[in-house]
Structure formats: structure tokens, C-alpha cells
Write a structure and sequence with these properties.
Chain A is mainly α. Helix content of chain A is 70%, strand content 1%. Chain A is globular and about 70 Å long. The chains are: A mainly alpha, B mainly alpha.
Chain lengths: 292, 303
């Protein structure tokens, strides 16, 4: 063992370490600190203890409480509507693509994957036109008389449609790669034993791709909690704030017009972060336990 | 062992005889179901893009008077002419250039940073190496929403608001790609470095001429996803750019809803969206196999 301090690792690990400290560690710590302060983003934060949290969570007369509960509720609605579809549809596609007789697999895969490479703002402009009453598909082909973005449940439907359209490709690729790794002889012997397609799916396919399933479920859910672009572009949070998600409230408080209320926004961000952490941990725990 | 295998084989050969008749029909039905399902999805998935492209080639009067059509009656470039002429309120070419510049530089730096850092955490030995790595990895799992507001403050303090650096640099701090590169490097035999070291090669030499060529596949994948990720980032540019001439195209398109508002200039709106799509689409067409190969998660995490 030599006691000499080696310099070489500093050059390899050091630059990233500095980036990590400046752009991840510091802002995270500061974000938690700011949540206990009154801060306008320009001056120095003033310590107020738990005041922000008390207001957000318990002061039912305050607008911050209303913004938070409404934003969190709408975020949960989005998660509950989108995540199951973002798991089940890609899984169905991957299983269908595994079918021996299907031709043109890579073409089909590309068509479904490409929307995932399109930015939310470009995709939203196109979908907004499709759902436009006068000019789009819903009005002209299906003769719907409603303005979809301004009425529920249609406002949620267009947000979810946009999300699903752009979101299934990534998980589909992961499931396809995992399914191709499942040993073929497992299926064959199950088929010989007379197990039907449904039975084979639940007793061979699902257990074999357990890890990718947990991974995609946790990541997709965490991503869905950060939803921002789809409601901003499609409905501007309406009608009557019914699609205003928490990220929109946080952005409006911290970076909106008028004086910044960054301390309050930071507290909301910390609460959203905690929700994401707890739910990710729960998902991982429950799915891992059930699989064993 | 070998006898066991042969017995199994024999059993499987004998057993299915009774069901053989039903199988082809079940197979045909499930094949038909799979086809119908996939075909329907393909149509639904493709229509918006085709519709967007075709609308960008229709005149405003045609769109308003004849309603929904999949293809234009008369093809016209007037929308694209109008888009290119608007260099004040919606400078789309400037936005596209900003996005190309940001995404390209970000991607190049990502490749440099993740390969060098990955080498440090995989091939070098120093005290507390793995502790440091897993500590950073653990911290990076903390939801990013918490550091959003202070990140803006840091960018502001560095004087990077409304500059490309605001989008190029912070993303380099991420741990995900470094984790992948480290996993990949760990699977490369140590003998390779040892023999190079015996020949007197320095760490930098080994990184450059032994390890880098071997990890090229994973670096390409990381580069492609960094490029598309940077190109499509939305929340962050909406926050850090207020200057219309400096912003990337995703943030620019948000402004278009107001500029070409209420769908009075639909052609322009669709044309701009299509122009914003083209670069990542081209990238996909040229590098398709890298996008869809996916890192196998089953083996990836155990390794």
C-alpha cells in the first residue's frame, strides 16, 4: 500500500464532480433551504421556518393552499390516467410484434416510435389542430360540436391522447428487447402442456420481464408527476383550472409575472419531490415483494 | 445431465399429439388479432404527422373552406414563404439554428464527460471510489423538481440567462449516462489496461486508445438520446429564455400559439411544427438501429 495521493483520478472524475456539485447538489440543498424562507428570487431569502408548509397544507383560506391542492389533485389525475396506458399499450404492442407470423416489424416499430422524438410543443400544435372544432378531425369527421380544450372530460382526453401518442415508443422498445430475451423453449413446453396464449402471457412472459416492468413502471410514474408541457400547450390549464398541474403552479409562482414567490414555490416543489420519492419507493417495494 | 435433456425432449415430442389439430387455427386467429391491432395503431400514430405536413402545404382559404382533408387540393409553399419571411416575432430559422447549436455542442460535451468520468469510476483505483460513485448516484435520484428554482438562480448568477450555455452545461452533471458507461466499461477485461500499462502507457493514453474504441456503441446511444433530449427539452428553456432571438425552437413554438393565434394562420403554425420535427426525424432515419436496440435491462443491472 502506498500512501502517495494519486493525482490522475482528479483529472478524470474531478470535472464532472464540480458540475455535479454546482448543478445538482447545491441547487437541491438550496431548494430545500428556500422552502423554509420568504424569497423573491432577487434578494436574500428570509427564514420563516415551517410557515410555507403550514400555509400550503393547512390554511384553507389561502390561495397557495388552493393552488397546491388543485395542482396536486390534477397531477394525480394525470398520473392515474396516463401511466396504466403507458405500460399496457407498449406491452400489447411488444407482444403483438413478437408474433411469429407478423411481417414488417421494424416498419411498424418505427411508426410507433417516431412520435417520441417529437417535442411536446410541436406535437401539441398538430394535435390541437386535430381537435379543433372548425378545422380538425373531431369536428369534421365525427361532427363533435364541443370545443374539446374548454370542456371536461374532453380537456383531459386530448392531454392523455397527446401523452400516449408520444409516450408509448420508449417503453415498447424496452419490452421488445426484454421479450426477445425470454427463452423460447419455455413457451414451447408450455404450449405442449396445453397452456393457452393468455395463460402463457401471465405465467411466463410477465414473470420473465419482471425487472423491466418494475423499472418502466417506476420511471414512467415519476415522469408523469413532472407533467407540464401537455396541459400548458393543449388547455392552458383550463377549463376553470381543472387541468392546471402542480408544475404549472410552481412555475407561475416562481417565474410568473409580478413579484416572484419562490419560497412558497420551493415548498411546493419539495412536497412534489417527496410525493414522487414515496410513490417510487412504494412501487418498487410492492412489485418486488409480489414477484417473490 | 445429458440423459435428462434427452428425456425431456422425448416427452415434449410425445405429449402434444392430442392438441395438434386446434393449434393452427388458434395461431391464425391470434395472428389476425395482432395484425388488426398493429395496423390500427400505425394508422392512428401516422395520421397526425401526415395531417401536419399536408396542412402546411395548404392555403389558409382552402383549410377554412373545405375543412379536414388528409391531402391538399392544391399544394402551395405560401406558408413556408411566410414563415421564412417572419424574422421578427417568430424567427423560426434562428430558433432552429439555436437548437442545432445547443443540441450539438451539448451532445459532444456529454460524450467527452461521460467517457472520461466513466473511465475514472471504472478503470482507475482510488480511495472511496465506489462510495463516491454510489453517493452521487443516490443523490441524483432525488426528484429534479426541487432544484429547478435554485438552478435558475445559479444560471442567473453565472450570467447565462438567455444564452446557449444555460442549456448546454447543466445537463452535463447527470449521472444516468455515466452509470451506463461505467457498467459497460466494467465488462471489459482488466488485462487490456494492464498490458498497456506494462508498455508504459499513461491513463490518458489507455483511455484514448484502448477503452474509448471499445465503448463506442454505448457512447453512440448516449449521444443520440442526449441530442434528442436536448432538442426536445421544454420546461427549462421556457424558464430561462425571454429573448425571442436566443431561444430554442421548442420554447419558440409556445409563442407561436399567440403569434399565429386562434388558428388564423394554420399553414404557418403547422409548417413551423414540421420544421421543428425534421432534425430529430432525420437523425432517427440515419441511426435507427441505435435508437431501437435498447440496453437490455435484465442483464444491464446485474453486470
Amino acid at each position: 500500500m502506498t500512501k502517495k495521493f494519486k493525482l490522475a483520478p482528479v483529472f478524470f472524475v474531478g470535472p464532472h464532480l464540480i458540475l455535479f456539485i454546482v448543478f445538482i447538489l447545491l441547487p437541491t440543498i438550496y431548494g430545500i433551504y428556500a422552502s423554509f424562507t420568504k424569497w423573491n428570487l432577487i434578494g436574500d431569502p428570509v427564514w420563516v421556518g415551517l410557515d410555507n408548509y403550514k400555509t400550503i397544507l393547512f390554511d384553507s383560506g389561502s390561495t397557495f393552499h388552493k393552488q397546491f391542492t388543485n395542482g396536486l389533485e390534477n397531477t394525480f389525475i394525470f398520473v392515474l390516467l396516463s401511466v396504466p396506458l403507458l405500460i399496457v399499450i407498449p406491452l400489447m404492442i411488444a407482444v403483438a410484434l413478437e408474433h411469429k407470423g407478423v411481417k414488417g416489424k421494424s416498419f411498424i416499430q418505427s411508426v410507433i416510435y417516431i412520435p417520441g422524438l417529437i417535442s411536446i410543443s410541436a406535437a401539441a400544435l398538430i394535435w390541437a389542430l386535430i381537435f379543433n372544432k372548425q378545422l380538425g378531425v373531431t369536428g369534421n369527421v365525427f361532427h363533435s360540436e364541443t370545443v374539446w380544450a374548454a370542456n371536461q372530460p374532453y380537456a383531459w382526453i386530448i392531454i392523455i391522447v397527446l401523452t400516449i401518442w408520444g409516450g408509448v415508443g420508449g417503453n415498447m422498445i424496452i419490452y421488445r428487447a426484454s421479450l426477445s430475451g425470454v427463452a423460447k423453449d419455455l413457451y414451447e413446453s408450455a404450449e405442449m402442456d396445453g397452456a393457452g396464449a393468455v395463460r402463457r402471457f401471465f405465467s411466463i412472459t410477465l414473470p420473465s420481464i419482471r425487472f423491466p416492468l418494475i423499472y418502466t413502471f417506476v420511471m414512467t410514474t415519476a415522469g408523469a408527476f413532472n407533467v407540464f408541457g401537455q396541459p400548458l400547450m393543449m388547455t392552458k390549464g383550463g377549463p376553470q383550472e381543472s387541468t392546471t398541474v402542480l408544475m404549472m403552479s410552481i412555475r407561475k409562482l416562481a417565474f410568473g409575472t409580478g413579484e416572484s414567490i419562490a419560497g412558497m414555490a420551493s415548498a411546493m416543489a419539495v412536497l412534489l419531490g417527496l410525493v414522487i420519492l414515496v410513490i417510487s419507493a412504494l412501487q418498487y417495494y410492492v412489485m418486488n415483494r409480489n414477484a417473490n | 445431465m445429458s440423459t435428462q435433456v434427452s428425456i425431456d425432449k422425448d416427452l415434449t415430442k410425445v405429449r402434444p399429439v392430442a392438441q395438434k389439430k386446434d393449434q393452427p387455427r388458434a395461431g391464425r386467429i391470434s395472428k389476425a388479432v395482432a395484425y388488426v391491432f398493429l395496423a390500427a395503431l400505425c394508422v392512428i400514430w401516422a395520421i397526425p404527422i401526415i395531417f401536419g405536413i399536408s396542412t402546411s402545404f395548404r392555403s389558409q382559404t382552402e383549410v377554412v373552406s373545405s375543412g379536414f382533408r388528409l391531402l391538399p387540393e392544391n399544394w402551395t409553399f405560401e406558408s413556408y414563404k411566410a414563415i421564412l419571411e417572419n424574422t421578427s416575432t417568430a424567427p423560426i430559422m434562428q430558433w432552429l439554428w439555436n437548437s442545432v447549436f445547443i443540441a450539438t455542442l451539448h451532445t459532444l460535451l456529454v460524450v467527452v464527460v461521460i467517457s472520461i468520468t466513466g473511465y475514472g469510476y471504472s478503470r482507475m483505483t482510488f480511495k472511496g471510489r465506489d462510495t463516491l460513485f454510489f453517493t452521487l448516484l443516490g443523490i441524483s435520484f432525488f426528484p429534479g423538481v426541487v432544484n429547478l428554482i435554485p438552478s435558475y438562480k445559479i444560471i442567473d448568477a453565472l450570467g447565462w440567462v438567455n444564452t446557449s450555455l444555460a442549456m448546454i452545461i447543466p445537463g452535463l452533471a447527470g449521472m444516468g449516462n455515466i452509470f451506463l458507461v461505467r457498467q459497460f466499461m466494467n465488462s471489459i477485461p482488466k488485462d487490456l489496461d494492464e498490458s498497456a500499462r506494462v508498455d508504459g502507457a499513461s491513463d490518458f493514453r489507455i483511455y484514448l486508445s484502448v477503452i474509448l474504441p471499445l465503448v463506442k456503441p454505448v457512447l453512440i446511444v448516449c449521444a443520440l438520446f442526449s441530442f434528442t433530449g436536448s432538442w426536445n427539452d421544454f420546461l427549462w428553456p421556457v424558464i430561462v429564455y425571454t429573448d425571442v432571438t436566443k431561444m430554442p425552437v421548442t420554447a419558440g413554438l409556445l409563442l407561436l400559439q399567440d403569434i399565429y393565434g386562434n388558428y388564423r394562420m394554420i399553414g404557418q403554425l403547422m409548417g413551423s411544427a414540421i420544421l421543428a420535427i425534421i432534425p430529430t426525424l432525420l437523425l432517427f432515419l440515419f441511426a435507427q438501429k441505435y435508437f431501437v436496440q435498447s440496453i437490455n435491462l435484465n442483464s444491464g443491472i446485474k453486470g
